[in-house]
Each structure stands twice: as C-alpha cells, then as structure tokens.
Amino acid sequence: MAMIVDALSWVFLLTGGFLGVSGGIGILRFPDFFTRLHAAGVTDTLCAALILLGLMMQAGWGLVAVKLAFIILFLSFTGPVAAHALARAALHGGLMPLLHRAEDDPSKS
C-alpha cells in the first residue's frame, strides 16, 4: 500500500512540475498580455495544487497534511482572483487583447 501511495504522489509531483514548466513556456511564447496571463493563471493554480497534493501524500495524515490542505485552499482562491484583477486593471488601463496576428490579416495580402 505504501508503494502505491508513493507512486501516486510522484505522479502528482511530476505532473505539477510539468504544468509549471509548460506555464513558464506559455509566458515566454504567447503573443500578448492576456494570453500570457491565462497561461500563468491556469497552470499556476493547478501546478501548485498538484505539487501540494503530492507533498500531502508524502507527509501522511497529520498536521503537515492539514497545513498543506489550507495552502491549497488559499491558492485556489487567490490565484484566479489575482489573474482577474490583473486583467481588469489592464483593460482599465487601455490595453486591448490581440485578436489576430499581422501575418494572418487578409487585407495585407
């Protein structure tokens, strides 16, 4: 049973790490602020939740697992709220989303 829990926790840890790296790549590769914000917001919340869930499984049942559960709960609320606040502030500041790329524009052909 301990080997199954250990393997499952490593699956969560590696999946969370992969999502963190893919979110970082998304921040570098996406063209505008809003798509970068989406990549950071979605992958950050899920990445942190999966890593903390893997750590909870490694820690076992106890006070450490309860503290990690509270951190997951806190990050589940604050991550999307922060991304929404940044998007609203950008729109309020006059930054508009990039709707298409210049090379995709048929009027330039």
Secondary structure tally: strands:
0
User: Terminal Cα separation, in Å?
Assistant: 64 Å
Number of domains: 1
Mean pLDDT reading: 86
The parts where pLDDT drops under 50 for at least 5 residues are: none
User: Helical percent range?
Assistant: over 70%
Query: Counting H and I runs of at least 4 residues, what is the number of helices?
Result: 3
Given helix and strand content, the structural type is mainly alpha
Order of helices and strands: HHH
Oligomeric state of the chains in view: single chain
Gross morphology: elongated
Rg measurement, Å = 19 Å
The profile of the biggest β sheet is: none
Taken as a percent bin, the fraction of beta residues is under 5%
Notable traits:
single chain; 109 residues; mainly alpha; 3 helices; 78% helix; elongated
